[in-house]
Specification:
The structure holds two protein chains of two kinds. Chain A is α+β, with helices and mostly antiparallel strands. In chain A, 26% of the residues lie in helices and 34% in strands. Chain B contains 13 helices and no strands. Classes of the chains: A alpha+beta, B mainly alpha.
Chain lengths: 367, 276
């Protein structure tokens, strides 16, 4: 089923948690809502689920208005960040809950419930734990039980709030891959919330990057990473160097040196963003390269990190070199070098909003 | 006994356990033992004779019946009150919350006099009830009213913290799975509250069993009709029938013990279903 969010706003007291958001999710798509704490991503997910009523705007399921429908009529599978499993019920009864509360006319028989729940427990690979209580399971198992419980009602959409937030790194990676596989098999329209850009990149078909209650950019993971629409997206997705620069006649200047193209931008102050791995460092001066001094060299795993200070401007520059390249001609602290950006992106200095500071709006994610 | 000597990070297990046992003995166990020994003076036949007089039986019936009924009523209304106080924000909430503790704080005699005045045939409520033929003061109903009053805080105060800690996500999850309000309450919320509700019920019941001060003012204390066990014990003592008083008290003690044991078992069963 497709989801259409149209101009949704949500105000809590005086605080605009969502400030005019529109988003389309196609049938069978897996979309990530990515953003820092307090960006409104969880609130948006809850509005889609019907757990929160929008102050303005509408949510359409398959073109049909869903806002007036209560959450229990929407047939959405919602997986909560902290699972919200019923502690006094066994795993089996947790998963069976959605089937047992159906009205008598639509409720499957006991045998049907049993076979369906067992099939779901199989699907999420906890078939041997049906008689256990949630407190006797590990975090990853609880997460899968929560998923099975949500799937039991044959939802039309699956919504997941920080699905891997409370798990350790290894389990998270495994579960992520497993969930992607499950999604590919079932083709269920899914939206999940995360603050982890790696998770969003790896798992989703499309990413909606949120900041301060707005969607800054929607696109495929490569699209948002390679061509960020705003400074916020640039900085939020991966490391970025921020360099204040001057824009003159379609070119960005760093001091007296032409740094990169800035086609179509008005003259004035600008900010250039360069990813650390998009920088070439040479000992010799090259065309358009900028002099700098090596401050620090750190070799960490597969990359060598250099910290450069610019000779003509204040400010530091972070550079990541593949380890092999660095081995070939090792740089040392204090060395004079030249650098050049392979690609960079220039924004007018006043463009977009600065990254939101973490706030207390989403206490759930702070736990 | 080796288990007791296992080295532990927490120091002082020996002395604190010893002191706790000594304290418990002095305050609870020795007086109870004395009670048993005293009643043993009567011999088994004498014991039976004393506790099975019509007057004693009526007092037992009234005390246990009214206490049980009062605890049941408070289990229901206390739950309701706790629910309202934790779930909703309304003006005056904190005042009502404070009022719940009043039966704790008020000297029971004061409560008794207040209730007696209110429910007496010429009191505010009593005169109204009198017109429709209901008598509260100086009847078993009066005993019940007093017991409801003094045991109210127990259920409210045991359920409140549990309700407060109940994650809203549980109810949201239930709703998203298609459960209606009643199903959510019945299958998700209530089972979580049940152990606390049983605890509150047990406490209220125990408190009501032993209540004396507030009851004697409103009960009228007619032997065989509105006389409660604690009062009967007191009357026996005044007549220097120490062994008889001890015998009645022993029955009371055993019955309370059995009831509390049952409730505890019930509670264990309820919390076991949490997988704890």
């Amino acid at each position: 089923m497709s989801i259409e969010v149209r101009g949704v706003e949500k105000v809590f007291g005086g605080f605009r948690a969502i400030d005019g958001v529109s988003l389309n999710v196609q049938e069978g798509e897996l979309v990530a809502l990515l953003g820092p704490s307090g960006s409104g991503k969880t609130t948006l997910l809850r509005v889609i689920a019907g757990l929160e009523f929008p102050t303005a705007g509408s949510v359409l399921f398959d073109g049909e208005d869903a806002v007036t429908r209560h959450v229990r009529e929407r047939k959405v599978g919602f997986v909560f960040q902290h699972y919200a499993l019923f502690k006094h019920m066994t795993v089996f009864n947790n998963v069976a809950f959605g089937l047992r509360v159906k009205s008598r006319a639509t409720r499957p028989s006991n045998e049907e419930i049993t076979s369906k729940v067992n099939a779901l427990l199989n699907l999420v690979q906890v078939e041997q734990f049906g008689n256990r209580y949630p407190s006797q399971l590990s975090g990853g198992q609880r997460q899968r039980v929560a998923l099975a419980r949500a799937l039991a009602i044959e939802p039309r959409v699956l919504l997941l709030d920080e699905p891997f937030g409370a798990l350790d790194a290894k389990v998270r990676k495994e579960l992520r891959r497993w969930l992607r596989g499950l999604h590919d098999r079932m083709g269920l329209t899914s939206v999940f919330v995360t603050h982890d850009q790696e998770e969003a990149m790896e798992l989703s078909d499309r990413v909606a990057v949120m900041n301060r209650g707005r969607i800054e950019q929607v696109g495929s993971p490569t699209e948002v990473y390679d061509t960020p629409a705003t400074p916020f997206v640039y900085e939020f997705l991966g490391n970025a160097n921020r360099l204040p620069c001057r824009i003159e006649r379609g070119r960005a200047y760093l001091g007296p040196i032409v740094f990169t193209e800035a086609v179509g931008l008005a003259d004035g102050l600008g900010i250039a963003f360069v990813r650390p791995h998009d920088i070439e460092v040479t000992v010799e001066h090259q065309n358009l390269s900028i002099p700098a001094t090596v401050r620090q060299v750190l070799v960490a795993g597969a990359v060598a990190k250099l910290e450069l200070s610019l000779d003509t401007e204040p400010g530091m520059l972070e550079v990541e070199l593949p380890r092999g390249a660095h081995w070939g001609a090792p740089f040392t602290a204090g060395q004079k070098v030249h650098w050049r950006a392979r690609t960079a992106r220039v924004f007018p200095a006043n463009a977009g909003s600065p990254p939101a500071a973490p706030s207390e709006v989403e206490p759930a994610t702070l736990k | 006994m080796l288990a007791l000597r296992r080295p532990s990070v927490l120091p002082g297990f020996g002395p604190t356990l010893g002191f706790a046992l000594l304290y418990l003995s002095l305050i609870v166990l020795i007086p109870l033992a004395a009670l048993f020994f005293r009643s043993a003076d009567l011999g088994f036949d004498g014991f039976l004779r004393v506790v099975s007089t019509p007057r004693a039986l009526a007092a037992f019936r009234l005390t246990f019946g009214a206490a049980l009924f009062a605890a049941l009523v408070n289990a229901f209304f206390g739950l309701l009150l706790a629910w309202v106080l934790t779930r909703y924000r309304f003006p005056g909430r904190r005042i009502i919350d404070g009022l719940v503790d009043l039966p704790f704080a008020l000297p029971t005699a004061v409560a008794g006099i207040a209730l007696a005045t209110l429910y007496a045939p010429n009191g505010w409520l009593g005169s109204l009830l009198d017109k429709v033929g209901i008598k509260v003061a100086y009847t078993p109903a009066g005993v019940f009213v007093a017991l409801v009053f003094i045991s109210l805080p127990f259920v409210v105060r045991t359920i409140q913290p549990v309700l407060q800690d109940l994650e809203p996500e549980l109810e949201e999850a239930s709703a998203s799975l298609g459960a209606n309000r009643w199903q959510t309450w019945r299958f998700v919320v209530f089972p979580v509250l049940l152990p606390a509700l049983l605890t509150g019920f047990a406490l209220a019941f125990a408190r009501a069993l032993g209540e004396y001060g507030s009851v004697i003012f409103i009960a009228g204390n007619l032997p065989g009709r509105s006389e409660i066990v604690p009062l009967l014990i007191f009357i026996q003592l005044e007549q220097y029938q120490y062994a008889a008083a001890a015998a009645i008290a022993t029955v009371m003690l055993l019955a309370s013990f059995v009831l509390l044991l049952l409730i505890n078992l019930l509670q264990r069963w309820a919390s076991k279903r949490h997988g704890e």
